[in-house]
Write a structure and sequence with these properties.
With 158 residues, this protein is α/β, with parallel strands linked by helices. The protein has a domain of 108 residues: HUPs (Rossmann fold, 3-Layer(aba) Sandwich), CATH 3.40.50. It is built from six helices and five strands, in the order βαβααβαβααβ. The protein has a five-stranded parallel beta sheet, sandwiched between helices. The longest helix has 29 residues.
C-alpha cells in the first residue's frame, strides 16, 4: 500500500454501505489501501447465552456447544462483512487488507491505527436512545478522542 491506509472497523450488526463506499473511495482518492477490521467480541456469546438462560429458553447451564455455535456464526458474519469490503476495494482497484481479531473495541482499533499508520479511521457508532445520547459517551466518541488520525463515524444499520 502506498501512503497511509484507511481503516474501516466493521460492525457485527451490519456495516452501512455508505461507510464501506466512503472508506474505499477515500483510499482510492488518496492512492492507498483499505484495512478492514472485524472485531470478535468474545463476550457476545456469553451475553447471548445469558439472555437465553434469563428468558427460560435454555437451562441454567448452557453447553459449550451453544457458545461454540454462536462464535462460529459470529465469525461467518465477519467473513461476510470483510467480503463486502473486498468486493468494493477490488472494483475500485484499491489494495485490501482483511483483519479478524478478538479484543476490546477501543483498544483494538487504537492499536491497529498505530500498527498500520492509519490516516483515517471509519467506525460505526451504535444507535442510542435519544436520552442516553446526552448522558453517556459512546465507544466511537472514545476512539475519536484518542486516535491520532481523522475519525469518521457512521451510524449502524437499523
Amino acid at each position: 500500500m502506498n501512503g497511509k491506509p484507511v481503516l474501516i472497523a466493521l460492525s457485527s450488526s451490519g456495516t452501512p454501505d455508505e461507510a464501506i463506499s466512503f472508506a474505499v473511495e477515500r483510499a482510492r482518492k488518496d492512492n492507498t489501501g483499505v484495512v478492514a477490521l472485524y472485531l470478535l467480541d468474545t463476550d457476545l456469546s456469553k451475553e447471548a447465552s445469558d439472555a437465553f438462560t434469563d428468558s427460560g429458553f435454555i437451562g441454567d447451564k448452557p453447553s459449550s456447544e451453544l457458545s461454540e455455535s454462536l462464535m462460529r456464526e459470529y465469525r461467518q458474519r465477519g467473513y461476510e462483512e470483510l467480503g463486502r469490503v473486498q468486493v468494493k476495494a477490488m472494483e475500485a482497484g484499491v489494495a485490501f487488507e482483511p483483519l479478524m481479531e478478538e479484543g476490546e473495541f477501543v483498544a483494538n482499533i487504537l492499536d491497529n491505527i498505530i500498527k498500520y499508520n492509519i490516516q483515517c479511521a471509519v467506525i460505526i457508532g451504535r444507535r442510542k436512545n435519544v436520552i442516553l445520547k446526552y448522558f453517556s459517551r459512546s465507544l466511537a466518541d472514545e476512539v475519536k478522542s484518542k486516535a491520532g488520525c481523522e475519525v469518521v463515524v457512521f451510524e449502524e444499520n437499523a
